[in-house]
Amino acid sequence: MIQIKGIAASQGISFAKAYFFNNPKLEVLEKKIVNTSEELLKLDSAIELSRRELKLIKEKTSEMIGNDKANIFEAHLLILEDEEYIETVKTDIISKEINAEYALKETSDMFIHMFESMNNKYMKERASDIKDVSKRIIAHLLGVSLPNPSLINEKVIIVANDLTPSQVAQLNHKYIKGFVTNIGGKNSHSSIISRQLGIPAVVGTNNITSIIKNGDFLIVDGTTGIVEINPNNEILKKYKEKKEILKKEKENLYKLSLLKTETADNKKIILSSNIGTLKDLQEVKKNGSEGIGLYRTEFLYMTKGELPTEEEQFNIYKQILLNMKNKSVVVRTLDIGGDKRVPYLGYPNEMNPFLGCRAIRLCLKEKNIFKTQLRALIRASIYGKLCIMFPMISTLTELREAKKIFEEQKIILKKKGYKIAENIEIGVMIEVPSAAILSDFFSKEVDFISIGTNDLIQYTMAADRMNENVSYLYQPYNPAVFRLIDFIIKSAHNENKWVGICGEMASDPIAIPILVGMGIDELSMTSTSILKVRKHIKKLKFSEMKNLSKKILMCRTSDEVISVVEKEIIK
Ligand code: PEP
Ligand code: MG
């Protein structure tokens, strides 16, 4: 019976067995072999096991997230059939009299190096396929098993050093009841997606993988960040009761789903949803959301192994707009880089990925990818109320260039005879301090502003949102952050533009009274937070919150901000 405390990343309580999701170390040493025919048989059998496994993974992936995404495993299966690859391994075993795993590793490394050095994205992509496939065969040769979350068919809690955003996006929440990781922060994209999927999660525990054994019974409390390992009956009972209370609270909140959001003195605020996939629309409806304030389009690019076509994107954007009828849908153009890597684009690893070629920077380099997305969006615009925003803008020059490309694509499509909505709104995400400081100028050149506080906090505080060692500096309530937000809201309102917040701060109970007092027009969040926030706002008075926000601007530290809010709100 041990208790571990980490960072509460996604609310909810779950109980299940631990499932280790750590890639084992595959140590391959060269050995001299006398009986090469036996070694060839070993290789054939490892290839056959890999083939069966890949077929099953392909089938499961296709059931869970569709054929497109399962195609990546078809590519892996084809590598197993590649005669040049397999024959080279076999020839090496015979001629050099070496063990199968060493021969396979040498041949794979040669092909990987060859494909990686080609100046062609498709070929670079093949290199990463060979890496994956060779790892699988070597694991079978060494008799170790690789974790395969798509093959899990019983309820488990995943325990891992880390999970990437695309791994989390593909978790099947029928079986995966929660996850716990060594590293990570509350606002990493993996944590954000877990909240969207409603999977309880605790991250940043530092060393959970060295404490838990595969199969241990776990309780994950994503509300407090506590993980109980092999709890006794008394603890188990306590958590079961807590889970029941949370369920009742949630049911009561549904009564608010048809209401508009306004303060006690009738100041209206729009509460919108952040979504990442079409599936998220269910929760949007269920929780009485008033629009989509952030559609993170990058998951279209991350789960498939290749770029989505214009047609594929058009169909998805169209469905979302039709679903939302006359409510606004704010689509963010591609924001990859940082913690969201897309290996098939062939970009090298960066020393500081969050300060590197990310989001709009990448789109302005890879203009064809950007143009394709914009054309798909423009074509879909006639099906609803479309707003497009550009992420991680640092300069007005970037904004102007992005807008110019958007206008050019509009002209191209018009010439081709496409109908286009007249009222597409163009906005900027303010996430970088340089843009925040110049937000008075930015406000003149856009229709709206959306403040991405997740990044604005990390760049203002110079504290990586993924790094638990500096999480004490990742301070949403630091007065420096609130001064920037206040200036952005004033700047937008001076130009009669609306301004929203789409970072996690939008659903933070301490930040909400301050943001309301500053005059925020829209708050966009995970759908499941909307009703709780609506209830919170209904109790606030705008007139009082205005005074509160003035006090906050005179605070010196994060702790001071918290105590002022607590004193004023809880009284
Ligand atoms: C943000 O930075 O606040 C934001 C909404 O974007 P993301 O979390 O996807 O970086
Ligand atoms: Mg961001």
Radius of gyration based on Cα positions = 26 Å
Give the helix/strand class: alpha/beta
- Small molecules bound in the structure, each named once: phosphoenolpyruvate, magnesium ion
- Unreliable runs, pLDDT <50, ≥5 residues? none
Mean pLDDT across residues = 92
In words, what does this structure look like?
The chain is α/β, with parallel strands linked by helices. Helix content is 49%, strand content 14%. It has 23 helices and 16 strands. It has helices at residues 36-65, 67-81, 83-96, 100-116, 121-142, 165-169, 189-197, 208-211, 233-253, 281-286, 299-302, 310-324, 360-365, 367-380, 396-415, 433-437, 439-444, 453-461, 479-494, 511-518, 530-538, 542-553, 558-570, and strands at 2-5, 7-10, 13-20, 156-160, 176-181, 201-203, 217-221, 226-229, 270-275, 292-296, 328-332, 385-390, 425-430, 448-451, 498-501, 522-526. The strands form 2 sheets. The protein has an 8-stranded mixed β-sheet with strand order 1-8-7-3-4-5-6-2. The protein has an 8-stranded parallel beta barrel with strand order 9-10-11-12-13-14-15-16, surrounded by 5 helices. α15 links the parallel β12 (385-390) and β13 (425-430). α2 crosses α5 and α14 packs across α15. The longest helix is centred in the first third of the chain and has 30 residues, at 36-65. The two termini are 39 Å apart. The model has no long low-confidence stretch (mean pLDDT 92). Bound molecules: phosphoenolpyruvate and magnesium ion. The site of phosphoenolpyruvate has 11 residues, from β10 and α18. This is Phosphoenolpyruvate-protein phosphotransferase. Its EC number is 2.7.3.9. Residues 254-541 form the PEP-utilising enzyme C-terminal domain. Keywords: Cytoplasm, Kinase, Magnesium, Metal-binding, Phosphotransferase system, Sugar transport, Transferase, Transport.
